[in-house]
Write a structure and sequence with these properties.
Blueprint (H helix, E strand, L loop, with lengths): L2 H27 L15 E7 L4 E4 L2 E4 L4 E8 L5 E4 L11 E4 L4 H37 L2
Antiparallel strand pairs: 1-4, 2-3, 5-6
């Protein structure tokens, strides 16, 4: 068994989940930032990812498959209308007293945050299991 592939798969998963956490944090941080107009309001972002294809090749004279894992396809900016709040005294208020705020759904962002954290933890657990198996294999191989 190629332990490097197991490490690479877990590492790619952790990298994607870290990006997902970073974008969720940015969305939450900008949730209450008012904008001068609807066009200038912050737009929430999402990570689009997919399974990385397996690549087969020659390695050390035998056919082997390189690690799959996951890869980021894109970071999408959601095309949602800003949340308009009636605040006539606000410096950014328009003629009707409406102020544009980002259309960030707090509950959805918290769910996304928890999912990313659990996925990151699962990748760490998988990497630790592979590390333990590799170390145990070396221990078994060393006992003659």
């Amino acid at each position: 068994m190629d332990y490097n592939s197991a490490f690479q798969i877990s590492a790619s998963g952790m990298a994607v989940e870290k990006l997902r956490l970073d974008l969720t944090a940015a969305n939450l941080a900008n949730m209450n930032n008012a904008a001068a107009g609807p066009a200038q309001a912050y737009r929430p972002q999402r990570v689009i990812s997919q399974a990385a294809p397996l690549n087969f090749g020659q390695q050390f004279g035998r056919l082997s498959a390189s690690a799959g894992g996951v890869q980021v396809l894109s970071v999408e900016t959601l095309a949602v209308a800003p949340r308009m709040v009636h605040e006539p005294g606000h410096p950014y208020a328009d003629a009707q007293g409406m102020v544009a705020y980002p259309a960030v759904n707090h509950a959805a962002e918290m769910v996304n945050l928890n999912l990313a954290l659990r996925a990151y933890e699962a990748n760490v657990a998988a990497m630790n299991a592979a590390k333990t198996m590799a170390a145990r294999t070396l221990d078994i191989g060393g006992q003659q």
